[in-house]
Design goal:
Length: 229
């Protein structure tokens, strides 16, 4: 997990998009590291199918302890809350809306608002329609984070694994009607193809499209969205 030790000690809520290893690999050791110091449980939110996978295939006593059955001196250390696509959820000061996306396992994208800024995150996905319908319903989107895992040359692999390439991403962006003021940040680029993907994204000629920089702190808040109901 790309966080400092101080940040790690402050995290108590984790929202998952799906159960592929690159999205959950840090979770077991994260809970393990904090086990003895937790004064409230880590709460993991996600689609019911994702939570079922975690309990069956990861926290199953064979791969790793089932933390949902364990406690420290303060009480339970892990709890789950099902958050399925189509549902809304309030987590502390943040409002979440979940939407199903098109991956090869059950997956969700999210729209997240703190009342002054609203961002959307696609998670891992191929072509999608519901996500764009949801995005287009907002008049004050602050930022959209979109996946683009493979370069154009690996289009067949992208299709098989349900990911996007720059060319396919360009077609997806044509479905978006929220305007050019909203920045689009590209996430989930496979590291070995990153430079090629960035070059191919630049070829799309979209000034509000840029790769998300790992380690950089982004702040949004000037575009006020409608209330999420």
């Amino acid at each position: 997990m790309a966080v400092t030790a101080v940040q790690q000690n402050q995290i108590r809520d984790i929202v998952l998009t799906h159960a592929h290893l690159d999205h959950i690999a840090g979770l077991p050791l994260f809970i393990d590291d904090l086990f003895s110091t937790l004064t409230e449980p880590i709460t993991v939110y996600g689609p019911g199918s994702v939570i079922e996978t975690l309990e069956r295939d990861v926290f199953n006593w064979s791969v790793y302890p089932r933390f949902s059955e364990l406690a420290n001196s303060h009480g339970p250390v892990l709890e789950y809350k099902v958050f399925d696509p189509g549902e809304n959820l309030k987590i502390r000061h943040l409002s979440f809306r979940s939407i199903a996306v098109n991956h090869n396992v059950p997956s969700a994208g999210y729209v997240v608002s703190d009342g002054s800024a609203t961002i959307a995150v696609s998670g891992d996905t191929a072509e999608m329609d519901g996500f764009w319908s949801l995005i287009n319903s907002y008049s004050g989107m602050s930022a959209v984070l979109l996946e683009c895992a493979f370069p154009n040359e690996l289009d067949e692999l992208a299709q098989i694994s349900h990911h996007l390439t720059p060319r396919r991403l360009g077609s997806e962006l044509a479905k978006c009607s929220i305007g050019t003021e909203c920045p689009f940040y590209i996430i989930n680029m496979k590291p070995m193809y990153r430079d090629t993907i960035v070059d191919q994204l630049a070829d799309l000629g979209l000034p509000n499209l840029q790769p998300l920089e790992v380690g950089r702190v982004y702040e949004w808040g000037t575009r006020v969205p409608p209330e999420v109901t």
